[in-house]
Each structure stands twice: as C-alpha cells, then as structure tokens.
Amino acid sequence: MLSNTEKELIVQIWDTMIPVAEDIGSEALLRMFTTFPKTKTYFSHLDISPNSDHLRCHGKKIVQALAEGARNISTLATTLAPLSRFHAYLLRIHPTNFKLLNHCILVTLACHMGDNFTPVAHAAIDKFLSAFSAVLAEKFR
Amino acid sequence: MVEWTDAERTAIIGLWGKLNIDEIGPQALSRCLIVYPWTQRYFSTFGNLSSPAAIMGNAKVAAHGRTVMGGLERAIKNMDNIKATYAALSVMHSERLHVDPDNFKLLADCITVCAAMKFGPSGFNADIQEAWQKFLSVVVSALGRQYH
After folding, report:
1. I need a labelling partner for B64 at 20 to 30 A (CA). Which of A19, A64, A93, B15 fits?
2. How far apart are CA B142 and CA B81, in angstroms?
3. The Globin domain covers which part of the protein (chain B) (predicted)?
4. ipTM given for this complex
C-alpha cells in the first residue's frame, strides 16, 4: 500500500536515477552476481564482467523500466504487461531471484544517496520494488 | 564449519573496524521497525513507535540497537565458531522472546543498508558486500538454530 507522499518520493528518486541509469543498473547487477552467485546462471549468454558493455546495457534497461513503472504506479499491471509476459514465458526466472535483485538495488541506492536514503525513502522504494516484482511474476502460473 | 577466505576475513574485520556501533545499531534497528513495521510486535514495551520520527527518537530503540551490535561483536570475535557462540542467544530468542527467525534477516538487511549509506559505492563495493552478507547470513543462521 503506497501513500501519495510515497508515490511522489518514488518518482523523485527514480527521476534522479535516469541520467545515471547505466551506472546504477550495472552496479546493482554486479552486486547481485557477486553476493548471490546463483543469479549468474541466467546470464550465461552475456559478458557480465565488471563494466562490460552487456552489463551496462542490461543495467540501463532495468533502471529505465523501473523509472517507467514509478511514473505509472497506479497502472503497473498494464504498463508492465509486455515485461510480465517476457519474464513468465521466455525468461522463466525462479521467483525468489526478484528479491535478490531488489535488495541489491536498495544497497546501490543507499551507497549513492547516503543520508538521503532515509528510512521513509527506503520503505517506499522497497514497497515499490515488491509491487513491481509481483507484477513481473504474475503470469508465472 | 564455515570457510572464510582471507579476503573475506579482511573485508569483514576491516568493515567492522570502521563502524561506529553506537551509531549504526540505533540506525539499523529503527530502520527495521520503520521499513518492516510488523517487527514492532516484539517491542510493545518500548513506548512510542507510532511514527518514523517517534521510532528514530525512541531511547529504548536506540539502547536496544546498541545491544544488538554488542551481540554482533561477539560473532566478529568468534568468526570460526559463531554457531556455538550464539547457542544460548538462539535459545533465548526462541523460548523467551518468541521471535520469528525470518525477522533476523530483515534486521541484517537494514544493517547492510546502513553500512552502504555510510561507506558509499567504493567503501562498500560488491566484494565487501558479499563478504559482509555472508557473515550476517551465518549470524542469522546461528540465531535461528535452536528453534524446535
């Protein structure tokens, strides 16, 4: 359940991430691959070494999708329908992995935002990421 | 037995040495109570927890945050035997405090976020995060071990 204040805070935060989407996205992914090595099993077709083009490109896509979702929080299911189908029928990622990436996104934001990553901001983003993942996993079965 | 690489030991002890436990303990516990409000169920005697501001200003929360970090210090000093070091603590959390062990992970994640905020992307890089989270997962596992 997101309050209007939280929705505004979420848009504000993701808007600041758009210009650095490649940096933030690739860092979150690298943190996830390093802390939870099993997540690498989904990327055997890419070069996910630190700072690789694939890592930066993929990281950028993720941050841009999150920013898009942030701007359309009330209509997440419709906005994310194509991504939802993609994750369900093509990628078929084990659903527990969404939490692992979400956690690493939070850690990345904490690193870059420092004291601005207040408990209230942390709670709002965590709730947003959970809602976003729930939509991505909706069509799994 | 948990195997720590030299790099992991160095990272964990190094990070611990730079933490101000009187600062991060209160920060992490109050963050946990705010981000995961159901954890407040274990703190009904702590007084006013009705808002983020109340939680962050609550002296009992701060004191307890420091207590938790004291517990973590014991794990740091006994990294090769965390399970045995925490046996009594685990029994206490299970039989006296009745804490759902799934909540330990939430507090651990909040400690991680506070460390990330303090040290930034190079002070808390991916390798340090990996080592730190491995340490915390051993702690969490040891705390949950005596639940029957």
Report:
1. B15
2. 10
3. 3-148
4. 0.85
